[in-house]
Amino acid sequence: MPISLHCNFDFIICKHILNMKTQLFILIFSVFSLAIFANGITKFNETPKSIIVSTSEWKAPQVNVLIKENNGGTVYNEMLNTGKTDRKFNLKGMAKGTYTLEISDDLKITSQQFTITESDVVVDKTVNTIFKPVVVSKDNKIDVNLLNLSKNASIHIQDKYEGTIYSQQQNTSSVNKRFDISSLPSGSYSVNIDVDGRTYVHDFTK
Q1: Share of the chain residues as helix, strand and coil, in percent rounded to the nearest 5
Q2: Which pLDDT value is given to residue 19?
Q3: Three-class secondary structure of residue 42 per DSSP
């Protein structure tokens, strides 16, 4: 089924499952005085065999908190309400090794590594932020906006039954595209965006 998709660059729009391999205790409490590593987005503190995370500076009502092993396996996954209460993760039951903490909302993912040693937790001060793509489908148009700091991304529009009907590589620091889908027949579709080894999916119906 031949399909013509027209693109232009005039787009101006910006937008528990608890899988424990070792025992992880969670305590919620208010923290009044802490030595915190802060980057303006995420506060992340190390105390003996525990870490403290504050989500108060996030504007979204909820954020997703992930703790992942160095091999990519998920140790902890929960949606948390943002607010003034910090959350302490007691890591005494977890194996020694390097882990990654990720906090995300609809717009971005902030990550930071920490290492559990024999006696304590050592936090890497480097904080990485990935901006998620924003996809809006309306009036036979698909708008895609992405701040692509890695400069390596790909966009795929897929039909539920026939697979990929459009694919394009992007190697720019900012992606602003509008796709005219007026020629597509009625049906269910998805926009898949691959960036930084992650895939973001936006489903839409025409």
Answers
A1: 0, 60, 40
A2: 36
A3: coil
Q: Per the structure block, which two tokens stand in for 162?
A: 């026939």
Q: Are 54 and 40 in contact (CB under 8 A)?
A: no
Question: Do residues 84 and 57 touch, judged by C-beta distance below 8 A?
Answer: no
Task: Write the pLDDT tens digit of every residue in 82-137.
Answer: 877 788 888 888 899 999 999 999 889 999 999 998 888 888 888 888 889 999 99
Half-sphere exposure of 159 (CA within 13 A, CB side): 14
Evaluated on CA atoms 148, 203, 142, 41, the torsion sign reads negative
Give burial (CB, 10 Å; 0-12/13-18/19+) of 193.
buried
Residue type, 96: K
pLDDT at position 134 is 92
What is the third-level CATH fold of 133-205?
Immunoglobulin-like (2.60.40)
Topology annotation, domain 25-130: Immunoglobulin-like (2.60.40)
pLDDT score for 103: 92
